[in-house]
Amino acid sequence: MPGGRPPIDLEARRAWITERVAAGITQKEIRRELEEHNGLKVGRSKLMQQLAKWNITARRPAYKDSEELRECVAHCFHVLRLTDNRTQEVLEKKGYHIGAKRIARLRKEMGLLKRIPAGERDDAEAVIARLLHQELKDGNNIRELGRKQLYKHIRSKYNVIGR
User: Fold this and answer.
1) Considering the entire predicted model, what is its pTM?
2) What gap in Å lies between CA 87 and CA 104, rounded to an integer?
């Protein structure tokens, strides 16, 4: 008698799954719906294997790079200070179909780095010192800010500090 869990048979739900894929529903959402409505907990690889067996390709549509997308990514990075995964959720709600890895690649292309490379730290610190001096000259009350508040203020205003 073989051990382990019994195999999940998705053949009975083939028409439903095919319909969901054709409607553009993501595999993650299909798996969630299978669990919620049918009580079937299907792994990502199992669903992909089954789709491949049925000769169904379920790829995310290619994203369209636009100025609005880049502005939204920059806003999520600087102002909202979101991770790439949270940024993906925000973009999904706005109608953009782009994965977290592609967001990370796009963010890096835009120069929005989470960390400053070691070779560029001295230059970055000089720029930050110049900006702080300018902020003081302009009469901003940055002396009253704590370290985290100052960090947020500078980061939201300028693209100089990595995370």
Assistant:
1) 0.53
2) 10
